[in-house]
Prior knowledge:
By secondary structure, this protein is mainly alpha-helical. The protein is built from four helices and two strands; from the N terminus they run E-H-H-H-E-H. A two-stranded parallel ribbon has the order 1-2.
Amino acid sequence: LRTSLLPRIINVASAAGRLRGSQKIIEKFTSPSLTIPQIDSLMKEFVSDVENGVHAEMGWPNTCYGVSKMGLIAFTRVLAREEQGIIVNSVDPGFCATDQNQHQGYITAERGARTALVLAQLS
């Protein structure tokens, strides 16, 4: 990827990944010095806290999907900082009608993909 003419990474996130949880959790995910190993550790900590039934008291929000997207958004920020030669973006396609939500979304999947397509075509 680093040797491509116009390398890019587009991560599909979600508004579900908005920052929430305790101030301590938010500060960890938004630290300007956050690293990929630290994100990995945070995600493993969340899983462990959920498995042990203590995630709420540890300050985590009550959403596995949301925390996974918080991790993805943080990962995108770190990649953008560390990989200066690669265009790195994160996109929220909106509430798309897909199998994941039993087609309850109000945006078609095709419409939701447009922003990612535009980002893929940046030069």
